[in-house]
DNA sequence: TTAGGGTTAG
């Protein structure tokens, strides 16, 4: 495979260093939030000498009460205070404490916390700093809010007075377990803060997506304290989150200025930031500048190319990474599986699957979820189910991947059953789960069940249906011929109907050949998406199906006037590790004659099973060339080529850059029946699966 | 001194 790698030298080190105007450029972050900007820059050193005082000032300005140290909770009442003072001497607990430390050291956090229960229940033990440190590690390892509350409350009731190190560890414990409100209180009330304290709270804010607050604290820190490479790396991540490349560039220049431009963490954050901000060239530059290319560096640049849709380049980088001898990790495999699902064949993915297991990441939740998605997308639902069943732990995303697989495979009832099993296993569904299950109902025409599930969304699961859920239901109503109800659903939606919803109604109108409603929906769509070709094409089809050829020709003229043209559509098939690409009506392939003869004989064969070839003329002004294009669509040519050049009975996989048309859909369904082949036709957003004459098709949103 | 940072799946 010939792969060209995009690599531009658009920035240089000198340019970066000389463009330093930090931190004034950070104002840009707050441009959309002037409130922050106001109070960020109003203060000066003279007014509030200590950043901690400044934070108090912020709180006061916002009408908040200054925070007072929380009274230490005590299990004792005033009446037994005397008794407590008398029994103040703490019991030694060397055995339990050292056991807790050992368990935490071996990552056996759950057991460490089970042992901690003895300390909690009996009380009065002399617990040392190293044990508290181990308990903090256990809480972070488990990410359990309940554990954090238990440990923290024990620290307070046991009169633990943390030093700077332990204060930071306790802060980190809250941050890592997502308890940002408590973490912020702890940070504000810290008697002393050092670089680690600042980095911890700022990184926590960035983790939860509170970028503005992160920048606000960063500016305070910038003014009063030194910030290291870790801080810069975190703020580069915040710039990526805000998609503000100019701010990211300034942080890049700050890093170079302070001599941390080649720091591993800064470099990786830069690669990620540049690619997320839309400049893959700069990301590549940052990667090239890395003195030592680490696993994360490679992962970041591969993720960058994948994000921009440069799947081949991403794969090429993966080969380079593998050849360079750098260790691949579960991030690498997760990404490669995802890239494979867009680009490569099932065989290739199986190799990646084997590599995943060989490298010891066979149980990784993310990589396995990517595999479930991959096999689902390629119509290998049994394989997807196999991977899913062997996963030691699953999350909502894993369940969603398989429900989508079932739905698109045409197994609507099974998708609904899986959804119900998910609920029984107390896994919380999210809006994607509902999209998957409603879509499954739509494809399998399970109207009653779909309607019930749609209603249960807000009633039982407190998830507000979004436009795509409405679009699914409109499609479902359309299939039942309930166009009035579908229209009523659009009008009754609690938000302004989106293009997707009108498009669903337009499709429903086409299916039911309702010209009036179709025109209405199309007009709405023209207003919203005047340049979208497919909207015109659907209306054109409605006119055509209603026998209104003159109006259909009028739509075609509008298309021409607007300069909207069909992009060249093509289909390709991989045979013997070589891709063969076909355009509609294409006569450039060396086996052209054989392929066209095969198409003709297949059409003849399937016409015995009820296939009616598309009418010879769609519109009055279709010329001979266009006619050939209409009769020999690229997917038919690819299927014919596949049947000629592959073993009898082996499955065929066709990939294409467009949606399959109804004619090819019907034709290939029957071809699968008469040739007893399994045929998967797929494009980037949907696939059509044919086996023994049955078919399923679907969308991925 | 310890502690804090970068990349992945539906």
Automatic annotation (TrEMBL):
Q: Which GO terms describe its molecular function?
A: RNA binding; zinc ion binding
Q: What is this protein called?
A: DYW domain-containing protein
Positions with biased composition (Basic and acidic residues)? 75-87
One protein family per Pfam: E_motif
Q: Which GO terms describe its biological process?
A: RNA modification
Region entry Disordered, spans: 64-87
Q: Where is the DYW domain?
A: 610-701
Task: Fetch the PROSITE patterns from UniProt.
Answer: PPR
PANTHER family assigned: PENTATRICOPEPTIDE REPEAT SUPERFAMILY PROTEIN (PTHR47926:SF434), PENTATRICOPEPTIDE REPEAT-CONTAINING PROTEIN (PTHR47926)
InterPro entries on file: DYW_dom (IPR032867), E_motif (IPR046848), PPR_At4g14850-like_plant (IPR046960), PPR_rpt (IPR002885), TPR-like_helical_dom_sf (IPR011990)
Keyword line: Repeat
NCBIfam families (alphabetical): PPR (TIGR00756)
Q: Which family does it belong to?
A: Belongs to the PPR family. PCMP-H subfamily.
Q: Can you say where the PPR repeats lie in this chain? A: 128-162, 263-293, 294-328, 395-429
